[in-house]
Amino acid sequence: MMGTTVTILHADGVMSTCANLAAVPNVEIGDTVRTGDIIGSVGGTALGESAEASHLHLSMTKDGVSVDPVSYLPQR
Question: 2, 3, 20, 62: most buried, per Cβ within 10 A?
Answer without folding.
Answer: 20
